Amino acid sequence: MAIEQASLTEISDVFYRDVQSLGMSPLWRSTQPGPRDGVPAAPYQPCHWSWSDIERSLVRAAAIVKPGPEAERRALQLCNPGVAPSPSPTHTLTAAVQMVMPGEIAPSHRHTMAAIRFIIQGDGAITMVNGEPLSMTPGDLILTPGWCWHGHINRTEAPMIWMDGLDVPLVRSLKAGLYEGYPDELHPATKPIDHSVSRYGSGHLRPVWEQTSTKISPMLKFPWAQTEQSLRDLAKVDSSPFDDVAMQYTNPSTGGHVLPTMGCWMQLLRPEAHTRAHRHSTCHVYHVFRGSGSTIVDGVQIDWKQGDFFALPPDCWHEHLNRSSSEPAFLFSTNDLPVFESLGLYREDAYAERDGHQEVVASYAARYGDSRN
Amino acid sequence: MAIEQASLTEISDVFYRDVQSLGMSPLWRSTQPGPRDGVPAAPYQPCHWSWSDIERSLVRAAAIVKPGPEAERRALQLCNPGVAPSPSPTHTLTAAVQMVMPGEIAPSHRHTMAAIRFIIQGDGAITMVNGEPLSMTPGDLILTPGWCWHGHINRTEAPMIWMDGLDVPLVRSLKAGLYEGYPDELHPATKPIDHSVSRYGSGHLRPVWEQTSTKISPMLKFPWAQTEQSLRDLAKVDSSPFDDVAMQYTNPSTGGHVLPTMGCWMQLLRPEAHTRAHRHSTCHVYHVFRGSGSTIVDGVQIDWKQGDFFALPPDCWHEHLNRSSSEPAFLFSTNDLPVFESLGLYREDAYAERDGHQEVVASYAARYGDSRN
Amino acid sequence: MAIEQASLTEISDVFYRDVQSLGMSPLWRSTQPGPRDGVPAAPYQPCHWSWSDIERSLVRAAAIVKPGPEAERRALQLCNPGVAPSPSPTHTLTAAVQMVMPGEIAPSHRHTMAAIRFIIQGDGAITMVNGEPLSMTPGDLILTPGWCWHGHINRTEAPMIWMDGLDVPLVRSLKAGLYEGYPDELHPATKPIDHSVSRYGSGHLRPVWEQTSTKISPMLKFPWAQTEQSLRDLAKVDSSPFDDVAMQYTNPSTGGHVLPTMGCWMQLLRPEAHTRAHRHSTCHVYHVFRGSGSTIVDGVQIDWKQGDFFALPPDCWHEHLNRSSSEPAFLFSTNDLPVFESLGLYREDAYAERDGHQEVVASYAARYGDSRN
Amino acid sequence: MAIEQASLTEISDVFYRDVQSLGMSPLWRSTQPGPRDGVPAAPYQPCHWSWSDIERSLVRAAAIVKPGPEAERRALQLCNPGVAPSPSPTHTLTAAVQMVMPGEIAPSHRHTMAAIRFIIQGDGAITMVNGEPLSMTPGDLILTPGWCWHGHINRTEAPMIWMDGLDVPLVRSLKAGLYEGYPDELHPATKPIDHSVSRYGSGHLRPVWEQTSTKISPMLKFPWAQTEQSLRDLAKVDSSPFDDVAMQYTNPSTGGHVLPTMGCWMQLLRPEAHTRAHRHSTCHVYHVFRGSGSTIVDGVQIDWKQGDFFALPPDCWHEHLNRSSSEPAFLFSTNDLPVFESLGLYREDAYAERDGHQEVVASYAARYGDSRN
């Protein structure tokens, strides 16, 4: 009996070795992913980056590197320490903070990866997207869809700082990443400034001769003044239990997401707002445009204030708090919702216990270490 | 031979009589519609109504009828004299001008026909649409989609006047018209004022929890300030050879038409603009919101000024002129484009001769008679 | 007082006369359509045509008229006696029965109106649609979408008879009807026979290089063998309380209707089937392909057998019976569902009383007269 | 000077260390993907697996493992040797060959990953998908969409062998993989056998009461007889220069792909067919259902015969040859086209040189080693 068992084991071992040499593997020895509640902790952890760290590092970077042929962009990528040295906060999205000093040009290039810019500081520099010059003001969202030529030029007197959000990890995981440098410095302007905003921007109207709907928004800039007004208007009439006053930027030609691979949201957390927790299969990278507060992620409290960034991996319970009793907080975020919706993979659950609120079990610093120490 | 012929004719006559009695008719005796250039003059002719006639008639109507259970609306329908007594300017669209005096209520009702209101005079009266109070200011477009309860109330000190545009002839031709009176005076408000504008109005964003796309715009009011700004913005960058600076109001949930049966446009004719002629299978009813000029329709010149209405039947050559050298003209119009697009029946041709401009062969008064004389 | 009243009436009368002369009419004197239950009897009544009448009339017509330049089609249109001399059974659809004798050609023409053919008798004649020859066998559905060149040729030894179903009244009511005769006899074949069936017909697959979706089915013939099998398969697993085993022909590029203006159904009523009554805003024109039974329409019983046609106006209560205890009945029908769905006008109610079955109050002959007497 | 340089280097080094400790990385030190022609060789190489290896391994596996609670599936996964030990042939798709012996049950489970089965050997075993029993015959395609309960049971006298194709690497890369075991052996049947085929299968018709369109095909089995007929029909009228007679299985409710994450094709290579080379951003896993021939991939010749599998990574030049002068070859394949189309990432180029044909520079064995030696 023992001999037979040994013999069977031996036979198996030979078999497993043989199939491996034939380029096969036994499915029954693979591990299955668990049901949702048993999902093993993703290596992409929740993350937080403080503005003071970012800003100081940008200032130092300005002394070391200058945008140009060698260093195309002076941008600091936000990395998830759980997946070092991955240069992305989540498994689908990158985020970086870019600075262009007065007189500098970040030369034109293009890539199949799509990008958004959310403007943080400075006023009046230009992003050139396929011949359309787009002027930048804090709070503006600017799109540079995949394979569009784009470069940046700062002719103002002050440094210009913005968030770059891209779908790089997604596109790379699909092996669809292509890049091409522009042979000259800046791909030239062929359209008036803010051309696409002039076509679609001020109301819900479209030129009668432009009837095509495309998955990529034909409007490339969403000005902050309108965005803020939208949120303040919505705040008067409705809100979400999980995200308070939250809006998705939309493609005026479809009413859907602005890009097929990346969604953008702006959230207003009203003074003293404390949302209920939920979780979903998508991930979000947040930038605190204004205000201060906390987000509790799987029991860990991340405190944030103006300028900070934080990232939420998929399937984490999370809830938001505005700590101010008088000032709203504005959170901009990128997400991979369009991907999950297109592929039929979006799932969401509400946190059922404790009236929807998690118990705080640790601070972010205590759980993940404070990178500044 | 003659006898045989006579005999055949006789046989035929008996046959034709017989099949008729059997509820049939010989297709070979039907007339076919002609090719486009041979389309027989439609009974729906181009029409023009002057604001002074309309306004004076409204004032007189105010002395005769009061909105209420007996006369639900004090509205003057614009009729096409070519198809008397048809109470509509085209075969698919109605247009009327409605006046509600201070203190009056036009009671709530609903019908499967969809309606739009374009505000002409007065400021601050309310249209109540399915519980949403919508305040009215000149230049605003307000939707009352099919089968929504709607009524009007004027609590201001001044008369309120607006255009009503409906799809009544279309819906009646489809035998899909239903009407229901509301048992009380005004269907009550259940939402804050301009609720849907608060949700969608100020920018290209949507509440994250409202992801459904519907053929009926969820936004029920398009304020003039935004519309005007949109046109002035577009004027800076682009225009159509046939319609100058023309925009279609859009459904924010789809980017398409605001209603499945009726489209709405606002056109800015720049000073001294003279467009090229074209024709299309759709028809338009125009209201001159501001400015003065002419539209040449199949060689007949219609001169229009602020407040006037005019209607273009399908398949007429038409071109527009702004007679002012300094002031823009703003033309609001309703059309049946969504129907023709959905059913695959839209066709359009550019006028090829004389550099795109028709020869004027008659004035409107000369051709169709001036109704005022 | 009496005088004042008289005076007011006089003032009103003058007003009404004046506004009429100005091309306007008072809305408050218009009649509104009623709520659904009060819909006044439509002039388009339910209709029935017997096959023996049709067939005998076709034979007589063959002696009188021959397809060619003068009489393009030897087709008998089915007319609704309620709307004489309207050559259509409903307000949106026409139906005719066409016969092409051996050796005859019905010459090519095209029109913006879309047509379907449902083959009744004969085997092997050809309909040529934009260069694609489509062979005809009883039970086949053939599409000739709007503005496609089409003609018919019978090179077989026997007469060929089919149903023509068109959207003529709809397209005419939209004033979108154009017609063009082909300068020669038959627009020539440029594709192999049944070309589009070869591309899409035998399974749920599409050529990988044909990815466009269009509102007009790229497949122009739906062969009877497949249709019958589909119905017999469906009968094994499911049915509708109102229509028994009923299927809609679909556009393989979208899964939706075959044409944007006209839908086609094939229904199998199982032996002794008696469906429940319902009503809807759309209308149907039925051809009894096989079997015999009755349809009760607003309490009036229409008895039908193979070859007969009958038409149901909108908003009539109707239920179907197969009178055979052994044989299925097959009902082909055309409808205006795509129009009502596109325009958001479709409504449907189930008959709530008497377990869903109407009381029969009259025979068709008793109510509407028997055209044969 | 040297000192200054040293000093700058030192400053930089400190900076790079610091930003890394702060969870950031300098974008300018990241590598960009190259333009398409410079794409570095993907670790996922072209692969080939011979049927004799697979079949012999399955027979050996039958002696070692039995489907049941411990080994849910007796399936051999095809692995890409370039990315050992990755159990998938491409970066988005898995392929495995499963065998169920007479009397065996592969117990029910479900997962968010979608699967297809393509039947290779045996006749009459059952796959149970959410209560629908689907019988299996060689050449059939069976879908088990994401999160559907599914299990297999073989009550026939012979082994049943099929291909399993899943989107596992894609779904895992999106961290959206969930799995749940069914508490009992087989999730029970609640529908008649081949229920969804009865609803949609035999022609282009749909039950009139089923009007919803979904991204997941409501028809779960595509029988071989229809598929073969479709290809033979198409071969009569059209073909692609790159794929000869190639068809995509379609979702009858949309006309599009059968699943949102995975497409399926069946290709007929006619005798002596030799297609032109092209490349695209998507990848394909092929199973040779019938016939023999070669596929040249980036100059490397893969010879294949009935039963073999081969996989093409993205962006490889490839062309197909049927070596037989009399017999067609049938190639089934899965691909990630729906993903690339939804996300706007599909790209394709034709091979421009040498009349579209690559030079063969190596055999598969010479380039990648023959796993059997």
Q: What's a quick, concise take on this entry?
A:
4 copies of one chain form a homotetramer. By secondary structure, the first copy, chain A, is of the alpha+beta class.
In words, what does this structure look like?
Four copies of one chain form a homotetramer. By secondary structure, the first copy, chain A, is an alpha+beta fold. Chain A has one domain: Jelly Rolls, CATH 2.60.120.10. The first copy, chain A, has seven helices and 25 strands. In chain A, the strands form five sheets. A six-stranded antiparallel sheet of chain A has the order 2-21-18-23-16-15. In chain A, strands 3-4-11-6-9-14 form a six-stranded antiparallel sheet. Chain A has a five-stranded antiparallel sheet with strand order 8-7-10-5-12, with no helix packed on it. In chain A, a hairpin with a 2-residue loop joins strand 19 and strand 20. The longest helix of chain A is centred in the N-terminal third of the chain and has 20 residues. Chains B and C meet through helix 1, strand 1, helix 2, strand 3 and helix 3 of B and helix 1, strand 1, helix 2, strand 3 and helix 3 of C. Strand 3 of chain A pairs antiparallel with strand 1 of chain D, so a sheet runs across the interface.
Provide key terms for this protein.
homotetramer, 373 residues, alpha+beta, six-stranded antiparallel β-sheet, 25 strands
The structural domain count of chain A equals 1
What's the CATH H-level superfamily name of chain A? Jelly Rolls
**What's the main sheet of chain A like?**
6 strands, antiparallel
| CATH top level assignment of chain A | Mainly Beta
- What distance lies between the first and last C-alpha atoms of chain A, to the nearest angstrom? 61 Å
| SSE class of chain A | alpha+beta
Percent strand of chain A: 25-35%
Quaternary status of these chains? homotetramer
Q: What is the molecular shape of chain A?
A: globular
Mean pLDDT of chain A: 92
Instruction: Give the fraction of residues assigned to helices of chain A.
Output: 10-25%
CATH-derived topology of chain A: Jelly Rolls
- Count, helices of chain A: 7
- Cα Rg of chain A: 23 Å
